[in-house]
From TrEMBL:
<dbReference type="InterPro" id="IPR002347">
    <property type="entry name" value="SDR_fam"/>
</dbReference>
<keyword id="KW-0560">Oxidoreductase</keyword>
<protein>
    <submittedName>
        <fullName>Beta-ketoacyl-ACP reductase</fullName>
    </submittedName>
</protein>
<dbReference type="InterPro" id="IPR057326">
    <property type="entry name" value="KR_dom"/>
</dbReference>
<dbReference type="InterPro" id="IPR036291">
    <property type="entry name" value="NAD(P)-bd_dom_sf"/>
</dbReference>
<dbReference type="InterPro" id="IPR020904">
    <property type="entry name" value="Sc_DH/Rdtase_CS"/>
</dbReference>
<feature type="domain" description="Ketoreductase">
    <location>
        <begin position="6"/>
        <end position="174"/>
    </location>
</feature>
<dbReference type="Pfam" id="PF13561">
    <property type="entry name" value="adh_short_C2"/>
</dbReference>
<dbReference type="GO" id="GO:0016616">
    <property type="term" value="F:oxidoreductase activity, acting on the CH-OH group of donors, NAD or NADP as acceptor"/>
</dbReference>
<comment type="similarity">
    <text>Belongs to the short-chain dehydrogenases/reductases (SDR) family.</text>
</comment>
Length: 237
């Protein structure tokens, strides 16, 4: 049997983990749309401009995706930002920006996606968190709080939407080889690797494979789960 294309939306899909996720769904033959603020979707994906901190922009993005691919069946909320500094130096703006993008942005996306999924009586909501969300990280109280919040968001969605065959799960990556980690010094990278039982960073494709699995028929009975892709860094949390 051939693969029936599904309508997939990946936010922040122009680089790093988001791009790898979008490319993985394109490779499966799905109808993939990617939201970015500046463009640059991978080949084969619909390029949609969207700032997820703007509710009207989110509504407009979904209208564009639905017109092209039909109702979104798989939402991957990946777009996120960091604004790192110690708490005594952290401005209100640095807190608000990270929470509004990473946590409230995911709420806006999930709420809008759920409308279509409830009509379809099926769907997959996958939120991209971070090992930092449960492990904590000095200098990242805003980021860690936003990523921890995604767990409560997903688990509540799992309870609200489960009766309609809609699952909600979290993928929690550890350190991944992306533009965001390339800025670290070699010394910093070695220190991080020393804490990871597998002794290396993840590739974006390894995170993407967990997302693709959660969207598959094989994961139909998995909901409210936090799937760590962190080389063992966050064990026990």
């Amino acid at each position: 049997m051939g693969h029936t294309p599904r309508s997939v939306l990946v936010t922040g899909g122009n680089r790093g983990i988001g791009r790898a996720i979008a490319e993985a769904f394109v490779a499966l033959g799905d109808d993939v749309a990617v939201t970015t603020r500046s463009g640059g979707a991978p080949e084969g994906a619909l390029d949609v401009r969207c700032d997820i901190t703007d509710a009207d922009a989110v509504e407009s993005a979904f209208a564009q995706v639905e017109a092209a691919h039909g109702p979104v069946e798989i939402l991957v909320a990946n777009a996120g930002v960091t604004h790192d500094t110690l708490i005594l130096r952290m401005s209100q703006e640095a807190w608000d920006t990270v929470i509004d993008t990473n946590l409230t942005g995911s709420f806006r996306l999930a709420k809008r996606a759920a409308k279509g999924m409830l009509r379809l009586k099926r769907g997959r909501i996958i939120l991209i968190s971070s090992v930092v969300g449960l492990l904590g990280s000095a200098g990242q109280v805003n980021y860690a709080a936003s990523k921890a919040g995604l767990v409560g968001l997903a688990r509540s969605l799992a309870r609200e939407l489960g009766s309609r065959s809609i699952t909600a799960n979290v993928v929690s990556p550890g350190f991944v080889e992306t533009d965001m980690t390339d800025v670290l010094t070699d010394e910093q990278k070695q220190t991080i690797k020393a804490q990871v039982p597998l002794g290396r960073y993840a590739s974006p494709a390894e995170v993407a494979s967990a997302v693709v699995w959660l969207a598959s028929d094989g994961a139909a009975y998995v909901t409210g789960a936090v799937i760590p892709v962190d080389g063992g860094l966050g064990m026990g949390h």
